[in-house]
Design goal:
Blueprint lengths: L1 H14 L11 E3 L13 E4 L4 E4 L3 E4 L5 E3 L13 E4 L4 E4 L3 E4 L11
Antiparallel strand pairs: 1-2, 2-3, 3-4, 5-6, 6-7, 7-8
Length: 112
Amino acid sequence: MKYTCCFFMILLVLLCVGSESEASNGLILAWGDYDGDGIWETGIFRVTSGLWAIRGITRVYFGGSTDKPVPADYDGGSSTEIGIFRESSGLWAIRSISRVYFGTSGDIPVTR
């Protein structure tokens, strides 16, 4: 089991090589503590479909092909929430929490 987990994490890193905002293969790493246990889970954001796949936690569709994933602890509850930034309109959408317009084209989202 230990080696399987290590292999999976190495495979994800190799698949997602590139900058966080532009993935040539359509996958962006989205690490975070999604269950609040103090340990970061491996996650990906599939640009082509808006799929968030958080290992052992969830698979959910949120966002689209022009969105940048911005996972962070937005509500102070010690767990990472799924969120996107849409540069074209300045939209910040945090799943099950809020939608707000802040920013403009060319801005770089900063969450931490």
